[in-house]
Structure formats: structure tokens, C-alpha cells
Amino acid sequence: MFNRRVLSSHRDVFDVEVKRGGDGSHTMRGLWWPVAHQLLKQAATVTLPRRFLPEARRRFYKNVTVAGNGGIYEVNLDLHKLKTPKGHTLQIPNYGLALAVAQEWAVTKDKIVPSLMHLTGLSYTVIDNPNHETKWDTVHKTLEYLDTDTLLFREDGEELNTLQAKEWDPILEWFNKKFDANIKPCPGLFGADIPDPVRETIRRYLLSYDVWAVNGFLYGVEALKSVILTIAAAERKITAEKASFLSRLELEYQSPDMPATTTHPPYLSTPPPPQQHPTTVPSTFPPLTSLGVADFPLGFGGVGA
């Protein structure tokens, strides 16, 4: 027995005959195939969460400039203002950071690879706030790395353990003194026991910074897997280069380039030379001299430091 049904697609109406078989199955006849194909395609579509994964694209601009005043700076690609993935104009409240972002775009040769433009990504995150996080949320995520901080885990091997103690212990002692703590390296894989008062002291320290710096701390901690090294670099206790090296100390120790006659490379035992940093550069970012901005021909007409 046949039943009459009507399916509508756009402005066209089609009569469809639906036949019910003895086994309860249904067959359809009389449906225009292009429409049926479209309906089946829509029914089979699975909705997946949308993620922002920008692909590399060709460089479309010639010149990169920084313009602004009153504490707000913008990066221009030719005559176009750089915008975030959500379409907001990239407005940076720090001249040094604006220079660093501009350099990331200026040194790009043939293709723009967003995954390699870390300070641009940091600026996008602060302005767009894709996860709708408050400053407190960002600090909380940063502190989650403290219990499993790289500097708190030591290897069993005598030689490597000696090297870790020599290079990491002075930084850990400085950190304990700064935050009136007594954090010690922990054996095993269960994480350190951080007292709540110490954790709250570090939380207040991080919350004293603005949202840009707080996100910078999180970026640094995620890269180094160490709250201690990130804060030490921000406070100029060590350079950003040395913080990066110390976070990879075990890998560097196992590297075939490690001299066989010494337990550590000369770089570690040599104190870093004093550096003069521009006062406009926030402490959470490398100095402009190490970024090479001064050597790159950017146009900064009418912009004061």
C-alpha cells in the first residue's frame, strides 16, 4: 500500500511514494535524484567542533610599519592594518612588543606560517580571548605547572643529577628566597608538595601584572614547562636563552655534541654578559636586541619610544 508524502527542497515540491514492505522496511520512488542526493548528503553530515587552524599562505605585502601614539600601537602591512582572526584591529599597548610583532611579519619570506609567529599569536590571544578567560583563569592555568615544574624533578643517574643540582639549585634557592618558600626537589613522578600559602603568594605576584604580561607568563611556562624558570627570566635572574637551555638540560646532556671531557657545556658555567634593555620592553619578552629588530629596516615614522 502506498502513502503520499511531500518533500520540499528550495522552491520545488516533489511527490514521493513510500512503500512499506512486509518486513517493515521502506522504499522510496519518484524522488528527483539530485534532490535525494543532497538530502542524503545533509543527513550524513557530522557536525564537528570548529577550530582555528590557519594554514600557511603566500606573503602578500611588501612593507611592515608600526604606527601609533598615546600608548596604543598598530602594525601595518603596506596600507592595511593587521587584524586578529576575529577581525579586531591589532592594537598593542607596548611599543617594544609592537616592534617584535612587526619583525615576525617582516622577516617572513615566501609563506606566512602563523604557528611560527609566537608573539603575534600571543597578541591575538589577548585581544580575541577565544576561550573567554579572565586574568584569574590564566594565572590559575599557569600555577597548574608548579607541582610538576621541570626544576623539581631530578634523574637517578649520578652524573646528570650532579649537573642538575649545580645548574638548577641556585635558581631554586633564589625562587624560595623571593617567595619566602621552602620548595625542594621531589623524587618519583607524583609532583612536589607546594603549601597553599606559597601558592597564593605566587598567585598574587602574577595577578599584579596586566593581562598581556599574564598571558606572556603562561606562554613562557608552557614552553619551558617551568614556572620557576619563567619567573627567573622575567626578573632578569637569567637570560631567556639560558632559561630555554636549562629547561632542556637532560636533552642537552644526552646530545652527541656534549663534550666528553666535561659534565656540562661551557655555556652554563659562564655568567651571561650584562645587557641594557629598553625600558619600554615588558619583562616577559626578550630584549629587542636579541630579537634583531634594530637590524631590520622597518618604518617607524612619527612613533616615539
TrEMBL record:
Entry GO CC: mitochondrion
InterPro entries xrefs: ATP12_ATP_synth-F1-assembly, ATP12_ATP_synth-F1-assembly_N, ATP12_ortho_dom_sf
Example of a GO biological process term: mitochondrial proton-transporting ATP synthase complex assembly
Region (Disordered): 260-283
Domain of life assignment: Eukaryota
Pfam family, one: ATP12
Entry-linked SUPFAM superfamilies: ATP12-like (SSF160909)
Primary subcellular site in the record, as a coarse category: mitochondrion
Alphabetized Gene3D superfamilies for the sequence: ATP12 ATPase, ATP12-like
Name by which UniProt lists this protein: ATP synthase mitochondrial F1 complex assembly factor 2
Organism whose genome encodes this protein: Scylla olivacea
